Amino acid sequence: QVQLVESGGGLVQSGGSLRLSCAASGNIGSFYAMGWYRQAPGKERELVASITNDGSTNYADFVKGRFTISRDKNKIMVHLQMDSLKPEDTAVYYCNIEGYIVGMDYWGKGTLVTVSS
């Protein structure tokens, strides 16, 4: 069974930092990228950041300069360092693996990040 397990979420004050981690296990096979999405209360899920297997990164405009995505070398593990957190960052954050074929993505169950004012 393929599993993506997120950790590191919690309650933090505005301006604080959190570091999310995602560990993947199981027969995943080849994939294109790993990334982080988030879903705020009452909102649709949106891309936060992603990193390809060759190290290329991309970020949503609303987190650029504040968040940093990284991948552990030779591991199916991805991290999201979140600095200068804002209340609007409050959401459930999901780890994602993008396969080379559409429909072959994997998702974690999410970790809740709550940023208080």
In short:
By secondary structure, the protein is an all-beta fold. The protein has no helices and eleven strands.
Written overview of the protein:
- The protein is mainly β.
- The protein has strands spanning 3-7, 10-13, 18-25, 33-39, 46-52, 57-59, 67-71, 77-82, 91-98, 106-107, 111-116.
- The strands form two sheets. Strands 2, 4, 5, 6, 9, 10 and 11 form a seven-stranded mixed β-sheet that branches. It has a four-stranded antiparallel β-sheet with strand order 1-3-8-7, with no helix packed on it.
- The radius of gyration is 14 Å and the shape is globular.
- The N and C termini lie far apart (40 Å).
- The mean pLDDT is 95.
What tags apply to this protein structure?
single chain, 117 residues, mainly beta, seven-stranded mixed β-sheet, 11 strands
